[in-house]
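Following the same procedure, sequence and fold were stored together, as reproduced here.

>
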Amino acid sequence: MRLGVVCGVLAVLLAGTVAPAAAAPSASEPVYDYAKAVRETVWVDIGHDGDGDGKPDRVAADIVRPSEAAVSRVPVIMDASPYYSCCGRGNESELKSYDSAGKPVKFPLFYDNYFVPRGYAVVLVDLAGTNRSAGCADVGGASDVDSARKVVDWLNGRATGYSAKTGGSAVSAGWSTGNVGMIGKSYDGTIANGVAATGVAGLKTIVPISAISSWYDYYRSDGATFGFNPDGLAQTVEARNSGQDCSAQNQVLRTGATANGDYGPLWADRDYVTHAGNVRASVLLSHGVNDLNVKTIHFGQWWSGLNVEKKIWLSQTGHVDPFDYRRADWVDLLHRWFDHYLLGIDNGVQNGPQASVERQPDQWVDQSAYPATGAVATALRPHTGGTLGTAAASGTASFTDNPNVGEDTWVTNPGSAALTYSTGTLASDLQVSGTSKITVTATPSTASARLSALLVDLGPATIRNFAGSGEGIKTGTTENCWGSSATGDDACYRVASADVKKVNYTILSRGWADLANYASLSQEKVLTPGTAYTMTFDLASTDHIVPKGHALALIIGGTDGSFIRGPAQPGRVALDLAKTSVSVPLAGVVPAVATHPALGGGEHVASAGRADLR
């Protein structure tokens, strides 16, 4: 793809005639001097006192913008993050830096280098309690969201900014058009989602990359727990703040995130999906379908709740930024996207296919919609004998929960720990596109039980090595440059390539639950051994083609030790197959049920839950 630098038509003055009007530009051009850009910090009052010092918290907004006198007002690209001093941004873990007077020098990522010369300001906000901002992190709560929302308000003249963290004089944003686009990966993209869910005026577009849509689903899954909690993340990002005491706020997080996995008030306050209807900004979303950190249920449920102009990229990677797996195309798309939604350039970026999906490493296809047009929720039922099909089923089956094993063992050697059901060899391609749900009727032998389910593509493939150290990419030593450089802030980044792996099966969707939450996510119930309970829970969103010659399998077990924590009393769980089914959004024909195909030998990338939200 082109990089989008297309010159506009200049007016030509003819003697004795009126100059014709200049044609509207088709793209912003790098005509402003990045080396001379204004670099400054404004502290914005967010209306909270998270650190309890009796003063309203102010967050630091580091700004870089064109300095040319001819520039009257410019739009803003904003990345609000807790990681600018503790952990870094991007594949090279860049941190902010400042000169001896405290003026910002290094702006992580390429956004400033590329877009400031094209007539944008870039604003990088330290979330409350992090780096140079006052207050305390509340991991997706009101203070986090308002750290960015109030900066949007300030850029539109509705909030107060100051020249210093305390005291100082009021500063206005007279240079801003008020049009703001938020972008960011992981926690940063999550804040973009949260701010958009407030419906704040002036936020014209968001670009959430591998972002959370509900913090409950980051730490819990239908009552099951992943074993880590928000207070730990808060302490990590607060480690290099300005010395404020955040122990009280951290205790609020610790208490609110109950160990039993129930959905309570703390999670409700951090559930952006419930407010997706408030979003007025357009959305350009990207996610890896093999992201085991911010799991793919996040993009699926967020996408489904949006009623705005939107596009989506789905890669085979794990938790990776598109800049590191499809760089030139991504920069071009961002350029056109921001030009359209922030500068008002009519370039048609909002038209055409809604989705772009990576089918094999570095092989992308455009798709008219996500979920795919023609994908229909199809009930597949497990049958005795290990078959999976659309016909009614009967009988029972059971497994014995073993929290010491997990998904890969279940696929290759389930033993008594899990049950496997297969469609048999497919005569034609079968596309799974969207979010699946499973309903089980289960009878536990003890007073506590976990449930896990997998959808698996049984057959050989070459995939990105998403469980490797780069989560599907290898970072090289050569660099390429994206925009202008200045002393202390260059525009050059190491080039990454696909890290690939040959496998004999691919787990394409997962889900986990605590059977004690069968009636409500808000309050678990004590289970009575020998009593049957029916529960429905989600499997992760995806877009995957199970090719001809492969088989689609459903695996049901207890504690998937790769991800969730086991129950107090692991035991035997019996399934009523007549009342157990999985609803899968399918495009294609499900064949008549057949015997389970041989798995064969070979190696699969090992999976593991991740708790590093970067």
Summary: Residues 38 and 65 are 5 Å apart (CA to CA).
